[in-house]
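Notes to self after the Tuesday call (sharing in case useful).
The group wants a holo model before anyone commits to mutagenesis around the pocket. I volunteered. Ligand is adenosine-5'-diphosphate. Logging inputs and output together so the record is complete.
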Amino acid sequence: MVGVDDVINKLSTVIDPDLNKDIVSMGMIKDLDLNSGNLKFTLELTTPACPFNEQIESDVRKAIDELDGINNLDMNVTAKVMEGRSLDADEFMKGVKNIVAVASGKGGVGKSTVALNLSLALAKTGAKVGLLDADIYGPSIPLMLGMKGTEMDVEMDQEKRKLVPPEYEGIKVVSFGFFAEQEHQAAIYRGPIISGIVKQFLVDTNWTDLDYLIVDLPPGTGDIPLTLAQTIPITGILVVTTPQEVASSVASKAIGMFDKLNVPMLGVVENMSYFECSKCNEKHYIFGKGGAEKISEKHNMPLLGAIPLNSGIMEGSDLGKPVMITQPDSPSAKAFTAAAKNVAAQCSILAAKLQEEMQAESAPTTN
Ligand code: ADP
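Result:
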């Protein structure tokens, strides 16, 4: 007769391709119950946005199929995003499981566009997502969402004395652009003050529970992005670049600086990678090819996605209508979705690494 340990042993042969670990030791099997050949359990994936979710589910079904004596499988598939940040003593922003900071070497490469559409793509998978537009010198998210400056009515939770972030298509959004005065004053502030303001925005917003908070950093390698990346317990940095040599060499410099400061890196997203012609269906590499690939090889970090050039992205931004919402089946939206899944997978990988480190630290030492 098949027993619970046979089931566990069999399930241990299923490997999560991202984490490179078996699903049992990763704690993904919950509430297992075996009764007269009727097997029931929950498969708890590490993120609803994992690119391998379907594969893992089908591998589990195949493994169980191979067991003799199982008449019926009742598998409930859920996802619980892993905690990807080590919280400091005062548990900075507890409840926010992952913070992904989006950086770029230079302005105009589409950092905000990528931050926004990745947030929307993650939310579409069912994850709880927030977006902080911390690009204090040029907050563009309100324009891209059709939420304009002072017209934006940001509420205060009087009891908790925190901002209640407005929601757009399921994501919670806060931007410096909502507060026009700060926006104009920003130009006169220096890095440490701005970093302080950004931290205040992070802490004084009632994000409630979030799986991913995407932070659109100011561009460049100035002291603001560097200070922020060091002082906020983030899961990792995502760098946006375009294929041109001039953009990728600055992006590479930015990555080098984050690396020196030991800030964890998630990977690189190449924006405006190519133009897909609707007449000939061919990809044209208008700005050159392979820029981001070179960066990913040089810095040994994943290339998380390549987003095509699409006039709909630009027009949508100007009209306050992001492409993920207006053209969800377009190649650009599909590229954002693929990139979002890779971002989520990298967050799970970094989270698993972090948990391992924390376990190693707390493990009793033997002499
Ligand atoms: P950054 O935040 O790096 O300064 P933005 O996200 O503001 O850059 O983008 C700069 C401009 O490029 C915007 O007008 C935006 O709509 C446009 N843009 C960004 N990505 C694309 C793309 N893939 N295709 C077409 N236009 C794009």
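Two things stood out.
The chain has a mean pLDDT of 87.
The first strand starts at residue 15 and ends at 16.
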